[in-house]
Amino acid sequence: MSSFTSLLFSCAAIAAFLILLRRWRYRRLRLPPGSLGLPFIGETLQLISAYKSDNPEPFMDRRLNRYGLVFTTHVFGEPTVFSAEPEMNRFVLANEGKLFECSYPGSISNLLGKHSLLLMKGNLHKKMHSLTMSFANSWIIKDHLLVDVDRLIRLNLDSWSDRVLLMEEAKKARTKVAEALTLVVRERRKGSESDGNRKKDMLGALLASGEQFSDEEIVDFMLALLVAGYETTSTIMTLAVKFLTETPLALAQLKEEHDQIRSKSKTGAPLEWSDYKSMIFTQCVVNETLRMANIIGGIFRRATTDININGYTIPKGWKVFASFRAVHLNPNHFKDARSFNPWRWQNNSEATIPVNVYTPFGGGPRLCPGYELARVVLSVFLHRFITIFSWVPAEEDRLVFFPTTRTQKRYPIIVKRREESSPCI
């Protein structure tokens, strides 16, 4: 027998032994049904392949149809329980820091940054989450941020003409922002140390927190907030325009609403809080865009102890993926769930939807601290974009979902100002 054949036989024997060992190890536990796939690799390749396409649903659909709303798999090097069951997702979210801890695959952690709020744990996370929310609540937005959001959006739109890569226009350069933040942190630290005065903003709060953060940690934390906000908000803006472009009736109704708002104010006047609160159909569009887009498709958690739930055991150390996307696109929860239909949110129907069924901003202790601001930014953008421009897609584009949700070509469109005659939308 050749050495190569011997090596091949040995590898096959080891693989078979590992499979048998794994089956014996988990036989005593009542795991959710499913398949752990191949040793080491598991079902990672199938997952990545599905999410790199414009239709990732078959990966979940096949397993949900075969095993039910909770199933076992093996992805990114670890056994993982996938949940598309709203009540189990709520349980996972609510027990952060008790039965579960935040745990993302290395590839995702690297994208987020080591000081990202999403990766913080324990008391540090509680403190930083509370601090972040205190600077993005509704009264801060109403009294301070709305005017700046409106001004910055108008300033950005003023430079748009002809062909625009919509997703690209909504993003900022990470390196330049990091350099600028570093200078600001250094100057503010020097100033506060010399005269004892601190500005009452997030940077001032971080410097005064008593945590002795280094400049690098402060910059990384604030940059993670900025990048997270820009990345997710720019994507949701792009997809809102894409979905509206593909749904002319919804776009027409939205135009009517915003033209009415514009007609009540002077040309060039900034938006007021009362204008935002009158955007009734806009909120339907925002809700539906968030439901369909699923920018945050779900969350990874690690069990810190053996957990018995729904008659199954999740072993200590196993990952759990609570899938928001699978719930949002389940026809048992939303009629014609995979169609963009903002009218489903009319007549206060949102109030009748269980809180654990619609979770675009997560929930529990890790509820997105910028959820109110995100809704305002998207609403203001839609108002200004729709009242200033008409547009047509420059070329066909499609959604991809790995490693994050985005359009493959950054959604190129041809824009024209509405006062110009054109056949655009």
Automatic annotation (TrEMBL):
For whether the record's keyword set contains Heme, the answer is: yes
Gene encoding it? Answer: LOC107469499
State its cofactor.
heme
Q: Which InterPro entries match?
A: Cyt_P450, Cyt_P450_CS, Cyt_P450_E_grp-I, Cyt_P450_sf
Chief location bin: membrane
Record's GO cellular component terms: membrane
Where heme is bound, by residue?
A: C368
Spell out the subcellular localization from the entry.
Membrane
Lipid bilayer topology: Single-pass membrane protein
Q: What is this protein called in UniProt?
A: Cytochrome P450 90A1 isoform X12
**Pathway(s):** Hormone biosynthesis; Plant hormone biosynthesis; brassinosteroid biosynthesis
For this UniProt record, give its keywords in alphabetical order, as a comma-separated list: Heme, Iron, Membrane, Metal-binding, Monooxygenase, Oxidoreductase, Transmembrane, Transmembrane helix
Question: Which superkingdom?
Answer: Eukaryota
Q: Which family does it belong to?
A: Belongs to the cytochrome P450 family.
Q: Which GO terms describe its molecular function?
A: heme binding; iron ion binding; monooxygenase activity; oxidoreductase activity, acting on paired donors, with incorporation or reduction of molecular oxygen
Gene Ontology biological process terms in this record: brassinosteroid biosynthetic process; brassinosteroid homeostasis; sterol metabolic process
